[in-house]
Design a protein that fits this description.
By secondary structure, the chain is α+β, with helices and mostly antiparallel strands. It has eleven helices and 16 strands. A hairpin with a 2-residue loop joins β4 and β5. α2 runs antiparallel to α3, α3 crosses α4 and α10 packs across α11. 36% of the residues are buried.
Length: 379
């Protein structure tokens, strides 16, 4: 029987305020699981990126990300790919420290799912027809490149070839009534504004959509970073210490090497944690405090693909509220209720496991980490 064992190795002191620099020494070593545990070679384009292209800033110096960051990233991408409608993936890990583990698991999940289309996006024909029926003067928001402009609906026109286009005015009379003519595909960059009245300026530079576009473009590859930034989908939920996670997500400076030099950003550029964004901004991740008295309220159909339990507290308290999602359970051996959570994981494994260990391309496990992987039915 595969069990999640307590390690007899050295345990790090409180790491809730540690930076990546202090955790680099964990190293990498393959640990063989017991019983039916199976591990596979880490083969991913992200292997080379973590080794050669991704860095973090420490005292003004750029240092390569530790390889264990790549391990947790890969776990997140594996969990994101597990989309069997009848089964869900459970990965539980005993770790010497929780620091940054949940963040990189979440990053792997969000990036792996970024190429998938957002279901709520309208079809071009339907969206175009809706815009054509608007009243003249209806306030609009128009996205062009990495800029967002205020606009008003100025009607419909037909080109010489008979093609119908909508007119979006983005400058006032003093600015020459500058108007964009948009076809069906281009109209997807237009949305109806949430305010009732817009006064157009003489000229507008537009508001930047992606603050650190070079960084996000390098991370997302072929995925449109602007589209990623303006569309919401709950990819991942983390139950853990909000304050600590805020520092890790928003304050840790990352850099990626590109053709034009280094592009800088943070994990928040990738994760887009809802509670760390201003109201109304598109999101991809949410963090819930494990200590809350009421379970999180989700909109119907918005269950995240992956739920990450960052520590024993959230897992012990709220695991039954997330049984439709894939799980990554991170149990810090220095944290409270560790042994109780381990016992629950073992009970869950014995009671709920379906079939043998799934065939997954799990990377070599870093030294000091123990892992159990199984599947169970979705509920």
């Amino acid at each position: 029987m595969a069990v999640l064992r307590r390690s007899d190795g050295k345990v790090s002191p409180d790491t809730s305020r540690h930076g990546l620099k202090e955790l680099v020494g964990t190293g990498m070593k393959v640990l063989r699981g017991q019983g039916e545990g199976q591990y596979y070679t880490f083969q991913s384009e992200w292997t080379e990126m973590f080794k050669a292209e991704l860095f973090y800033e420490w005292n003004g110096e750029l240092l390569p990300l530790p390889e264990w960051c790549g391990f947790f990233f890969r776990l997140g991408s594996i969990a994101a790919a597990a989309r069997d409608p009848g089964k869900r993936l459970v990965v539980a890990l005993s770790v010497p420290t929780r620091a940054y583990a949940a963040c990189f698991v979440a990053a792997g999940t969000v990036i792996a799912r970024a190429p998938l289309p957002v279901r709520d996006l309208p079809e071009p024909d339907e969206h175009f027809d809706r815009l054509c029926r608007l009243k003249i003067g209806t306030p609009l928001v128009y996205r062009k490149g990495n800029r967002k402009f205020k606009g008003i609906f100025a009607g419909v026109t037909a080109l010489n070839n008979g093609e119908t286009r909508i007119k979006v005015q983005i400058a006032n009379k003093e600015g020459g009534n500058l108007t964009e003519l948009l076809n069906k595909e281009m109209s997807l960059a237009v949305s109806i504004a949430t305010i009732d009245d817009i006064k157009l300026p003489k000229k507008q530079a537009g508001r930047k959509i992606v603050r650190r576009k070079s960084f996000l473009d390098s991370i997302l590859g072929k995925v449109d970073s602007c589209g990623f930034t303006v569309t919401s989908r709950m990819e991942c939920a983390i139950l853990g210490p909000v304050g600590v996670l805020r520092r890790e997500v928003t304050e840790t400076r990352l850099s990626i090497r590109g053709p034009g030099g280094f592009a800088r950003g943070t994990l928040q550029d990738i994760l887009r944690v809802r509670r760390f964004l201003s109201e109304g901004k598109a999101f991809r991740t949410e963090i819930y405090p494990a200590s809350r008295n009421m379970p999180p309220r989700l909109e119907k159909g918005s269950d995240p693909c992956v739920v990450i339990f960052d520590g024993a507290a959230g897992f012990l308290k709220w695991r039954d509220n997330w049984r439709i999602s894939n799980w990554i359970v991170l149990l810090d051996r220095t944290g409270p209720n560790f042994r109780e959570a381990v016992e629950i994981v073992n009970q869950e494994f014995i009671k709920n496991r379906i079939g043998n260990c799934p065939e997954l391309d799990i990377p070599p496990v870093p030294r000091g980490i123990e892992i159990i992987v199984y599947e169970e039915g979705r509920r």
